[in-house]
Amino acid sequence: MAVGGLSLAHDRRPGRPLCSLPRPYSVKGGAGGQAQFIERPVPEPKVGDAISDAVAYALAHLDDPGLDVGRLAAAAHMSRRTFDRRFRQATGVSPLRWLVTQRVLRAQHLLESTDLGVDAVARRSGFGDGVAMRPHFRRLVGVPPQAYRDAFRAA
């Protein structure tokens, strides 16, 4: 199943991440100058589960800068407080942190696979513009977006 450009596995065993995205965690190459990769779990949407439905909704609307935790709570038909609590239980992180991380992952993908400028990447990732994206990108990835693109292409 593909949701928001992500290919999702169909392993329904309890307690297991059901899909993941390989993403570089470091743009500083190893001894051979190769980019390093780790798996980052992304919960798989399950039909009928409110949190999974909200995750699927978020991934489908990630490019919308108006998408916030309030809209995710509404998509899950929950109050903001209940949604926050249940989302943390299901994923281990706050909904806002998860949303920002997903947007940065989308930005990484676009920087790797397109020639779009940083502002266009930011808009397609839901940040609105490059100024809004850069601090989140730098905090999570460790380098600014353009440096990430340059290092990824050099690897």
TrEMBL record:
It comes from the Bacteria. Keywords: DNA-binding, Transcription, Transcription regulation. Pfam families: HTH_18. PROSITE patterns: HTH_ARAC_FAMILY_2 (PS01124). The keyword DNA-binding applies. Coiled coil: none annotated. InterPro entries: AraC_XylS_family_regulators (IPR050204), Homeodomain-like_sf (IPR009057), HTH_AraC (IPR018060). The keyword Transcription applies. Residues 52-151 form the HTH araC/xylS-type domain. This is HTH araC/xylS-type domain-containing protein. The lineage of its organism: Bacteria, Bacillati, Actinomycetota, Actinomycetes, Streptosporangiales.
